[in-house]
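We now fix the convention by which a protein and its fold are recorded. These numbers are not coordinates but entries in a learned vocabulary of local backbone shapes. A record is reproduced here so that you can trace the correspondence yourselves:
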Amino acid sequence: MSLPARFAAFLPLVAALAIACHGAAAQTIVVPPAITVQRIAPQLVTFAGSAANFQNLVTGLSQGTSVQLFTTLPDGFTQVVTFTPTAALAPEQIAQALETARQRLIGLGIANPTAEQIANTLLGGVVPTPLGGSQVAGVLAPQNPPSPAVQIQANAAAGSTTPISTTPIPSIPSSASPVTPPVNVQLAAPATPGATPAPTPVQSSAKAAAQPGATNAGQRTAR
């Protein structure tokens, strides 16, 4: 076989390899925002109160859609809080906003905030505290610089090579209403079992015979 013929035999294999490499390079791996935020600042899962709350927070903040959070209170009631963020945020901005809110609440002496405290810290309002309440500015409203703590954690996050964004958190556009989006707080009573009548205990024959009147009742029946 001549040299040109040998090269011609390998051409289909070379072409197939080139197509495969091009397809692999064209693939884009999409990492869910919740995973990115957790890599940057894993302490935010505990801050949110639960994994479900953390997922709801990140999803709502990344899409600019309604967020619903739940907190079980000491009296057994469930606090259900709903709010809508002012704008959609990138994962790095979400980590920045939540870490800033966490630090503000720690400054108020609140290490394990309720859903209402988290929502009011993000949007602005009165945050309930053991001493009554504290008025705070919304984390999502002002133009905040990136939190140093979030920057350090972003650079040290395992498997995360994306530096934290220096883009400030979007504020409410000037054309929008100056009224802060409301935080809706509701209380759900603890679940109670249905009012099912308790079954009447079946007495043994020995106990029934020992009861007053049981013998007379039996005699009357026999008559």
Observations:
- The first helix runs from residue 3 to 26.
- Residues 64 and 88 are 4 Å apart (CA to CA).
